[in-house]
Write a structure and sequence with these properties.
This protein is mainly β. Helices cover 7% and strands 44% of the residues. Bound molecules: FE2/S2 (inorganic) cluster.
């Protein structure tokens, strides 16, 4: 792992995600309750980017199939429940999950030096 600068404090504001890369890895940096956080910008369902997902109460919703992840821990709190925002019935949710079970997204500890934010990635 290498320490990489991912943002400045001016880039990151509450209720949004800042899309960036660190060592070739796509990352979303956020600010939740005055804490800076980072997760991989790669949904563990199908590996699609989540940067356009809705952010609410420290949780991002994957824009493709509705999986939800905590922005600080990466913990999965909802798994595949819709298609581009349209809710799916239970049987269709299982089909859309394609046999994949609920999985957390990778998260990274963010350190701050002055106005610069770093992660180890
Ligand atoms: S790619 Fe994110 S929920 Fe399917």
């Amino acid at each position: 792992m290498t320490k990489s600068k991912v943002a400045t404090t001016a880039d990151v504001s509450s209720g949004k995600v800042f899309k960036t890369t660190a060592n070739g890895q796509k990352v979303l940096v956020s600010k939740v309750n005055d804490q800076y956080c980072a997760i991989a910008n790669k949904c563990p369902h199908l590996g699609l980017p989540m940067s356009k997902g809705k952010v609410e109460n420290g949780v991002i919703t994957c824009p493709f199939h509705g999986s939800k992840f905590e922005l600080c821990s990466g913990k999965n709190v909802e798994w595949v429940d819709s298609v581009v925002g349209i809710p799916l019935p239970d049987f269709a949710q299982k089909m859309m999950a394609m046999g994949k079970s609920a999985t957390d997204v990778a998260s990274f500890k963010v350190t701050q030096e002055g106005n610069d934010l770093f992660i180890d990635a």
